[in-house]
């Protein structure tokens, strides 16, 4: 087994809140010739693995095998390592054991005025389904739209997610694509509620079928329209992620 914890004299951890410039800082450190940055920006190793109470020899072995070999395979004998697991800020008690190996480790804490951070966080959030557009029960189509939103999101985001390069523009593109079918469906739901369901329920006398239903009864070919609207919606979505076709 390699024993490469000892030559590493210095370690820097970028920790902090989201949207506080940690990725920007990480990208700059990655380019520095004297620094070996982890192969993924946020290994989250010490926040995800509770190594408190693990005996010193086993602790060192675990860190080498599960942390250094995995996230710093390119470290060679670099004396300065760095990584950017922001979650270490929230689990200081679990991070403490690493000071046994690197007592001089530096923690760069990135924080920001929370009021400025909120709009920035919000722009990165993609809401789909009822979280983005609450649907009424009319037509029983709310779940269809929620699933279609999910398919549209997967189609657009699968590739940038794999490359870890999702941008605000990608999220906005999903929202833009789904806006029209959602608005049209909600408009139809309101129309049916106000013109058909509401007046029908309010009537005291004998109820007869609304004109639109009579028309559909008279021209069977027209039945395809509500069937299609309910079953497929205004803008049907088809799964187009790269792994389509590999499923059995
Ligand atoms: C009375 C009524 C009847 C309806 N009937 C139909 C119908 O027959 N057919 C149809 O297609 N649509 C129907 N709809 C609409 C449909 O229910 C919604 O459009 C659909 O459920 C939206 O799906 P969703 O996944 O976006 O949200 P939801 O189905 O609301 O799912 C959101 C989930 O997130 C969970 N959650 C919320 N907050 C948190 C949190 N902080 N942490 C973890 N989990 C959380 C919730 O418990 C919930 O399980 C009806 C709606 C109503 C109000």
Morphology: elongated
Largest sheet: 4 strands, parallel
The CATH level-2 architecture of the largest domain is identified as 3-Layer(aba) Sandwich
- How many separate domains? 2
Task: Extract low-pLDDT stretches.
Answer: none
Can I get a quick summary?
By secondary structure, the protein is an alpha/beta fold.
Main traits of this protein?
9 helices, single chain, 4-stranded parallel sheet, binds flavin-adenine dinucleotide, 2 domains, 248 residues, elongated, alpha/beta, 4 strands, Rossmann fold
Molecular structure report:
It contains nine helices and four strands. It is of the alpha/beta class. The protein has two domains: 10-115, 3-Layer(aba) Sandwich (Rossmann fold), CATH 3.40.50.300; 129-231, no CATH class. It has a four-stranded parallel β-sheet, covered by helices on one side. The longest helix is centred in the C-terminal third of the chain and has 35 residues, at 168-202. Bound molecules: flavin-adenine dinucleotide (FAD).
